[in-house]
From TrEMBL:
The keyword 4Fe-4S does not apply. It comes from the Eukaryota. The gene is EXPA13_0. Keywords: Cell wall, Cell wall biogenesis/degradation, Membrane, Secreted, Signal. One of its GO terms (cellular component) is membrane. CDD domains: DPBB_EXPA_N. Belongs to the expansin family. Expansin A subfamily. It comes from Nicotiana attenuata. Residues 1-21 form the signal peptide. The keyword Cell wall biogenesis/degradation applies. This is Expansin. InterPro entries: Expan_Lol_pI, Expansin, Expansin/allergen_DPBB_dom, Expansin_CBD, Expansin_CBD_sf, RlpA-like_DPBB, RlpA-like_sf. Residues 52-165 form the Expansin-like EG45 domain.
Amino acid sequence: MLVLLFLVAFTLCSTMSFAHSHYNWSPSSTTTEWRPARATYYAAADPRDVVGGACGYGDLERNGYGKSTAGLSTVLFDRGQICGACFQVRCVEDLRWCIPGTSIIVTATNFCAPNYGFEPDGGGHCNPPNAHFVLPIEAFEKIAIWKASNMPIQYRRIKCRKEGGVRFTLDGAGIFLSVLISNVAGAGDIVAAKIKGSRTGWLSMGRNWGQNWHINADLKNQPLSFEITSSDGVTLTSYNVAPKNWNFGQTFQGKQFET
């Protein structure tokens, strides 16, 4: 039941407003300083439990994220802006449960909704002002014994390393086009996106939710190019990513940010 509550709670973020995250990320950063937080875990009772999430990445296994993922609490999630960012996480302070000398790298793919029926220092693990990570048990057990449950950890933001190029998954209907941007290296999170057809100039896209971006424009029967900007201010342009005969439901691969 706890697993199901986590999974349901994660999907509620798109209708809420959240505080900004409390770390700084600049164009020159490769890592940020270590900060304190806590972590719990979930164990997927069904293979379908790895599908979905507040960032919109869908099937995490099929899309290359695997079990190296995290749901973040309100103060870290930043209204979905943080989706795609990478963090190094290590267990601290509790010598009974920590696995010494270990750390994991996870990508932000989900949201842990607050539960205001409990105090932040009680059952409301993800309530403000808590910095909290919810990890798949497979990731949690790399840094701590599972019996530890709610563990003190340290985390820091790092640059993401991904195989292959940035992926653009097209969805929508008619003139409504939704694009999921995934597998992003470097800063990992996208703050602006533009699209260009062969018969248009560059058109700004709006953030729909997570890393899903949308636009209302007639772009059928045109090859598509993308210009995306990450949170560290770096812009990447990929020309003719999708061919003229692209269709909804297809995924195409563009260039990749340097790491």
